[in-house]
Amino acid sequence: MSYHALYRAYRPQFFRDVVGQVHIVRTMQNALKSQRTAHAYLFSGPRGTGKTSIAKVVAKAINCQEYPTAEPCGECANCKSIKAGSNPDVLEIDAASNNGVDEIREIRDKVKYAPSTGRFKVYIIDEVHMLSTGAFNALLKTLEEPPAHVIFILATTEPHKIPATIISRCQRFDFKQISTKEIEAHVASILKEQEVAYEPEAATLIATLAEGGMRDALSLLDQVISYAGEKVLLEDVHALSGTVDHGQVLEIIKGLHEEEYGPVMDNLQNLFVNGKEPARIIEGLTATYRDILAFQKIGRLASEILSGLPLFGELSENLSSPVVVDNLFKLGRLQQELRFANHPELMLEVGLLGLRDSQAEGAPATDVSPQLEKLQKEIQKLQKDLKRLEEKSATVPQLVQEQSPQIKMDLFKLPNSEENIILPEAVPADSLTIEAILGTATAAMKGEILAKWEQLNPYQYGEESNIATLLKDGTVAAASPLGFILVYKHEPSCKRLLREDNGAVAQKIVHNLFGNPMPYLVLPEAFWVEVRTSYLEQKQQGIEPKLKQYSQSLKNVIDYKEEGTEPQRDFVDDIIETYGAELVEVHN
Fold first, then answer.
1. How far apart are CA 420 and CA 511, in angstroms?
2. How far apart are CA 42 and CA 176, in angstroms?
3. DSSP 3-state assignment of 408?
4. 41: which DSSP letter?
5. 3-state secondary structure of 528
6. Among 91, 100, 107, CA closest to 146
7. pLDDT tens digits for range 417-449
8. Radius of gyration of the chain (CA)
9. Which three-class secondary structure string do you get for 295-306?
10. Model pTM score
11. What SS3 class is residue 148?
12. C-alpha dihedral over 455, 456, 460, 462, to 10 degrees?
């Protein structure tokens, strides 16, 4: 007879053979004994946990000649034919390759026929989540009200892909991952039955690598038996699975801790030569660090293999927990970086050699006294500056209000009485002209005005904050000792600022900002560009400039129409704005 793989040869034939799924086995056995079987079941869970195996045991038990029974007899004709896969009443369908509407319609047409030899027709649909939407819709009605002699058992590893309408028509059983201890015991029993000698650590590692799947464990065991020959050794499992020997991992950790990087590099090169992938090395280091931390905190190991290695106990005593935790996080980041590295071996070497840099504990102590002294001096300087500002101005923002947790500014109060703003005697307010400002404009003066303008905080002015905001929106285009020109992109903003009531408030705000009266003219941008160009042309011709004025009284505002297109700035304009008109002479 041909050889059968171990996972096929040791597939459970009875409920008592099932490993790990106690809650499901108990429920199904009670249902069979009391003849309370449902018409549809949904078995969901990770791969290799017994979904299809239990489905076949259910099919045997329900068609067994000794029914109702908690276990199939395994001796009757039905039990033997189902085990052999030749029973016409038990159909196992792979939904991955039979996922169309036509296949489901064929099932739907055949379910009405009575079973040939058994008591029930059992349809086992494996990987049912692979069915198409149309196939699920075709299955719905049959699944809800099948004939009395039909049972559906649906198996899947991805239940979230199954429509809720299907799930609601089934009894759902969630299979769990099988524990490492249970897999290890089952592997050991198979090795004994096969009369193969083995190291207990080898069985432990096989169970650990299976990650809760019995089929994966038996597939790896089959491979290891073929490779090992007379005795299954721990090193045989490492060789076939690609994992790293625990002794080598501990040697690497010891070298990193003692900063002896020669042995670390030698061990890494040895692992690379033997075909170990960097990702596997990282996994081994992470698992070992985890075991060290667990042993330090709770005195228990996740992997019993390490308990017999003297170096493990030595490292557990010498390594501090913060260093272990820090290394675990660093290895996690390094593992992510390896996925996208062109040279993962080089990336692993560099990452491990720099593992001890800037560690939370255990790294060489750094003298921080100079840094602390520097910080203290900076704090003292900031405290002096803050005190000076508090003494200089009584309008420092009150950042914390006692009655409210909200931050609030201490508002600046403008004088209630209408004070006449006293302008410089040389330039009365109504005689300040554009050409007078341009004729005496300087870059230095403009810089001083801009510096003050940046300090304008509308929120300090309470109810007048809207006027302060309107001022803030303006652009200082030119400035001289006589005053400055404030330009607005749109003319309505100019007219709003030139209203008699708004203008009076604006002058008070400017007075407060500069600490003394500062006359200014308000112009729309299009008008400003025109008069500035006219000013330059007249200067080039040697003529004393005479410019059209934009009235600063709302009653006599010139109805100036802005052009449809925005004027273009040129090089000369930028030079004049930067250095002042009195310093610029334009030659054609």
1. 11
2. 14
3. coil
4. E
5. helix
6. 107
7. 444 444 333 345 556 888 888 888 888 888 888
8. 44
9. HHHHCCCCCHHH
10. 0.57
11. coil
12. 180
